[in-house]
Amino acid sequence: MKNLKKRDKAVNWHPYTQMKTADDIIPIVKGKGVYLYDDQGKKYIDAVSSWWVTLHGHAHPYIAQRVSEQLQTLEQVIFAGFTHEPAVQLSENLLQLLPGNQKKVFYSDNGSTAVEVALKMCIQSGYNQGKEKTKILAFKDAYHGDTFGAMSVSGRSVWTKPFGEMLFEVIFIETPNPGNLDDVKVQIKKHAHEIACFIYEPLIQGAAGMLIYNAEDLNQLMKCCKEHDILMIQDEVFTGFGRTGKLFAADYISEQPDIMCFSKGLTGGTMPMGITTCADHIYNAFLSDDKYKTLFHGHSFTANPLACTAALASMELLLQEETQLNIKRITDQHSQFAERLKKHPHAENVRQIGTIIAWDFKNGNETSYFNEIGKKIYHEFLQRGIIMRPLGNVMYLVPPYCITSDELDFIYRQILEVLDVFKQT
Ligand SMILES: *Cc1c(COP(=O)(O)O)cnc(C)c1O
Q1: Is 145 annotated as a binding residue?
Q2: What is the pLDDT of residues 297-339, one digit of tens each?
Q3: Among 44, 87, 135, 369, which lies 20 to 30 A Cα-Cα from 26?
């Protein structure tokens, strides 16, 4: 345990981190509930659920117990030609909660792979049926992950720039609002003859800066896609499992997507796992005596029994009345805080959906991921014992559902103070 910082620097390369100018890293030795503890004994409230994954708090005893039992029973088995109880049970349980047309579950390892599988399902289901449409429709500032396919369907940005030439062609549209909805529909119609599928983050675009848009506008776009035989991939990697106040963003929408993607909160944030679900007509497009029509995709750890068990345990906790009441309580408390923030001269575009609240810190500079204020704010909050990782000057809270009212109030107070501290910069 000694010298973790030094040893880390010698061997580790961290995600989304410029290693040359990286700040001092914080060794974490323990997690419990909403808190993470560093090697100096300082505790931090994890207000971003460790990159939006932790649902019920860290080291949850029930999930730990279930996974540990599974670990001693069956830790892993090849998922081609074999199956196991946790995978079957999890698929059964999950499908029951999804839109009625979702009928099959395909397992992978993370959000990006869930998206890759979804894209392959769309393109190959068309290919198998002799369809010629292969282009993909996405939102201009979408984020669907960091692997090549997922990058391709994400907005073009500094993150994707070095790979620009290698990303496949995507037709980008604006996120809908009541003012541009008709224009966006016109765009879709114009390209409908070449578009195989539309991929979108429903209701809130997380990585783009927690941009929230209207469920009814999305519904309209989905209707338009359906009319033009464009498949729909709903990426619920972030929105799934209660984040938006309902179990899934799908619960706000009447149209049904053809394919859905899940990860992040799926296992309660304990183990990496991705899921892609699909409607029968997608699945059926692969059924054939022709072996070439198989979905040739899989990962070594497809449907890992430990991850499936963690997901089963997490979903059990999620559906408990206590957790549902917590989600409602956080939502209400956020709403009240949003009203206060709206009156604050240094907070702009205050927005909220369920347990997610976000706003732009107004410091005279442009709203962007590279707005330097984010880093300063991040350190200020760390000092105050709160992990908040702004996206540039976009500040947000995505707390685990076990956070108490007092802990939330503590965070809100610190936010108001920090907004004042930094108003000059
Ligand atoms: C985080 C995220 C992904 C990518 O998931 P990873 O597990 O990080 O690969 C995909 N889609 C959305 C909407 C996300 O928020």
Answers
A1: no
A2: 999 999 999 999 999 999 999 999 999 999 999 999 999 999 9
A3: 369
